[in-house]
Known about the structure:
This protein is mostly helical. It has helices at 19-25, 32-45, 64-67, 74-82, and strands at residues 14-15, 30-31, 56-57, 72-73. 40% of the residues lie in helices and 9% in strands. The strands form 2 sheets. It has a two-stranded antiparallel ribbon. The radius of gyration is 15 Å and the shape is elongated. The mean pLDDT is 90.
Amino acid sequence: xxxxxxxxxxxxxxxxxxxxxxxxxxxxxxxxxxxxxxxxxxxxxxxxxxxxxxxxxxxxxxxxxxxxxxxxxxxxxxxxxxxxxx
Length: 86
């Protein structure tokens, strides 16, 4: 008997990205997990975390259309990202 194929979780299914998000993470479609990973690479590379409160993500010209002009808490970032995924 062949082993059952494991179902792909919803987070691993490739999704389409908005143009604003593609400007940061590259061309889609890609899984949500990969999008979040690449967003964090961008945040760390460009020093977009508040030095006093690491949970706060500070906006720049590329992040503002996604997380808002003031930035957001890292826990609310995934909610903001979901508006740019389809």
